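Reviewer 2 asked us to include a model.

Predict the structure of this chain.
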Amino acid sequence: MSIQLESIKSKMLPPQAEKKMRCWIRSRHLICLGNFFIFETLEYTTIERFSQCVASLGGTVISVEPINKIWMGDHRQVILYQAKASLHTPHHTLKQYWIKSGSAYTKFDERV
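Predicted model (structure tokens):
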């Protein structure tokens, strides 16, 4: 099952968007996989913010899917969303930043 995002108009300037995406790289919510950026979060509103950042930097969100349910405590499950985006630029500074400061796995990856 795939959740479609409506066309989101960018409400943020590129420097602000890049700063936010660098923060997500450091917190292991955002990783780079080949030519794509993979973003995982438990909050759908954060997916919308990620989409605004990608649009501000000239990229495109390719897909958003619920990929798992995670237990929060003993009685509550939340949905883990994964967004896949392309920034259309092979040598974007975010990719270089991810190489220096990022991780190969997101914080929700069960292999870690």
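Residues 1-8 have pLDDT under 50 and may be disordered. The longest strand covers residues 60-71. We have added this to the supplementary material.
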